[in-house]
Amino acid sequence: MPGVDDDAIRNTGGQVDDLAMAMIDAAYDREADCRDQICDALFDLGKKRPALVLSSAYSYLKKHNKLQTGHRVVLLQCMERIIKETLSELEPPLAVDVIKQAAMELTVSKEVMPEWQTAASGVLVSLGARFCDEVMDEMLQRFQPGILPHFFVIQTIGNLATSNVYGMVPHLTAVLGTMLPINIKFSEAIIDYCANTDKAPDPSVSKERFEQEIGSAFDVLFNSWLHITKEMKLRVAIVEAIGNMCHLMARDKLEEQLPKILQVILGLYKKHPEPIHVTQGLCSVLDAVCIEGNTVLEPNLDTVLGFLFPQIINPPDYKNPQSIKNHNEVLRCLAIIARSFSGKLTGILLSKLESGNEKMKIGMLTVFKHLINAATESMQDKQEVVVSGLKMMLSEQNNKLKKVFAQVVIAMAHHGYLELEGGQQMIEFIIKQSALKNDPPGKKSPDPEYVSNQALRTMCDHVLQLLTTTVEDMEHVLWPYLLELIVPEQYTEAQGVVCKCLSHLATKKRKEQTEDYEIDFETQANIPKPEALIARLMVLAGRPQNGRNRGIHVLTLMQGLVPNLNENLVELWDTVIPKLIQYLEDASKEDTWNQKNWEDLSLKIPMYNNYPDEKNFMYKCLGVITRKSTKKDFVGKHLDLIFGSVKHSDQTEREGCAIAMGFCAASHLDAVLSKLESVAKTELQQKSSGLFSFMKGEKSEVDIERTKATLMLCYGFVALFSPVSLIVSRMEATILRSIQPYFANVKDAHNLELRRCLIRTIELIGKAFDPKIMKKSHSFIPKQKFISSVKSYMQMESTTSLTNETRALAMNACSTLVKLDPRLNEAEELDLVKTSIDCIYPLPPNGLPVSKKGKEESYDKTLEAEVLMSATFDALHDLLKEILLKDLTPNGLNTIFKQLSKWFLSIEEYERERSLTTLLIVENFLLENMEPSSNNITDFPTECVILAKLVPRCTDPNIRVRQMAMDCVQCNSMDQPDQMIDALCTLKERIERKT
Fold this sequence. Notes:
Structural class: mainly alpha
Distance between the termini: 166 Å
InterPro entries: ARM-like, ARM-type_fold, HEAT_MROH2B-like, Maestro-like_HEAT, Maestro_heat-like_prot, MROH2B-like_N_HEAT
Shape: elongated
Protein name: Maestro heat-like repeat-containing protein family member 1
Keywords: Repeat
Number of strands: 2
């Protein structure tokens, strides 16, 4: 029955089926005539039964893999004849089977067997007239990029293109896309072979041998394929192939076609989103043209640069590898152009660098860096021009540009540019960047490519070290030139890296005893003299952690340089400096403080219970450590430990505890204030004084007062060391509220310690609000209340003797408060002066109480009283000077004089002497500080009053008082020459002779 059997044979069901198979089997008869007759018979049968004959032949070939080649050729030729006659009658499934078998026959043997493979190709070409897509599917599977295709695959595709133009053209994109890389590889292979003829088996092979063939291929690609192809990817591939072929073309033909080639290539930039392949093609063309100083490109140079520069100006997308490759390829194009046009290109780059914007300048500097590195020979004779031209960048202020220029300086250093005139200026530029200060605090720049001063400084530090240690030719540029940059103040921040580089050079040259190690300071006049270098290096070494931990490098330089500085220092520095370096190295190894060590130290506090000075120092150390710590638990634990272990009856320990709290408050203000509030609530509450209260360990009233004193002093130092940005708010909200209740009820004798601590707290708070510290004017509202409290404490003091420092402390506190705003009015000033004077002048001459007859005070007590008396009067005079500073005029002096003048009439000689001494000090202070150009000197309405009260004292019974009065009169009248006043000098001399 008719149908398709298991072997894909289209049987008819009749005897003809067996007849067809018999003829196929016998087709390769020994006799040629017989073979021809069988083939003709098969052909005739095939014309009538094409499906039967073709399917039978297909099945026979598929089954018999080892069939003789001649037999296969006969059958394939017969099939081709039948197909040509019956193509329109063939069913697609049968056609596909035959195509697959023919394609297998075509390529089963890698060797070329023309008769067999030509027959198979004929079958495919004949079927391709109707089934072109199916044939090309099989061919393209055997025609892949990067794989050398079979010869007959190429031939089949070519024949098919000729026989079926309309069916083949749609497949040309794939075909050409595969063929172009082959052309490129062929060109690259020839170029590589000719470039290495010394290794080649046939050295006679040259590029000229291929000029004709390459020229023909170029004509086809450039004149035909490029113009008929609309597919952009294929056009780019053609350009890339043309670029490689340019190396093998005849020179005259290349020069003739160059304008057209460049026009086509540059035109693709506007149409193709990925320019990398276009740039690669352009680069190959330029590489072929710009050789041996050939200037054939000159008419088109500006056009080419016009397409290349925009790609350099726009930075690459570093997330896109293709963008980075294109950027590098553009730079390569410019390096190739430099072979023939280095002078013109350098001029263009410098011109654009001078007049361009930021992006333009960055692009041009990037090109310079690449040319210096990649076009060394081409730029050799342009080095001086480049160094001179780039000097315009030395005054640049833009950090982005300075960063790129620093990279250019590195490139110049590696290629000898910095050895020319102007090279040292480039080194100085790098050091200027190393001396940059940190960016001012504030908003960060929104620019993602922003270059901070810190980043640029770090980079330039590395640049200078790199030049010093890795570029041998830079030694004679840097040595001894870098010594010129040691002393100038503007490079102080850079001295760490400068000294590091110099120490490397100096140590190396001293060890090797090189000829240029010894410095002649007379001939090299720009280098600072040895004395200046020694002084500068000593100062730099004095702060080893500044300048990015410069200490070790400064010391190493001092040791390496010492024979040049002073021969007498060599032995000393060689002995001492290594020990200092070791000390700094050991210290630097402990980059972070060891919390465990300090915790161990805190456990040893009981060891110092009987050593208040040592305990004071330990408290201060713990205060510094808590300031550095960022761990809240650690800080809280040690605040408890410090306050819990202090002996409140000892002023030295109390002071150490208070200072420690202040140190800690510098970083943990709120934690310290919270601790002090907690102490006030838990330890300062008066307990019941019942019969058994002592058995419960309750504190006595005296203990509580002493604890209060410690607490108040803590508040003072906390205010002093607190951050300026926080002190105002915390003062009003916490500190004042906490200390104000303790200013009352301190009249009892056992309150003396608390009184002194309150006074010191007031002084410390006043210092915290000093305008010089606050950096701005601030109205200190509690000022008058504080002064009133201090005055009341002074008034509490007995005038029969001077036994403590309360008066001095009080007046020091008032001196501090007087500096603050708002200023005291005249009445307040008068009252303050009066209170201060009244509590001091009545004191006995030596400060000691009047002793009973026959009883003398010990030497120690007398000496202590003298010291207290001197300190108290110094405090008074300082206070009066501060008051006078608020009004440096005769009117200001008159305010003080009003309170002093009544003491001129005292019956006690020492009181009269004290008042006149004070007046003389105040008058001298006024004369020293008053503006001489002002009218205040001549405008002195109360001068007569002052003189009237002073003159009687010039005849005082006490000679010392008499002398002081004359001094005051002379000082008061120094602005106006007077014979009577001048005569006082003679009178004083007579008095002194009499005494």
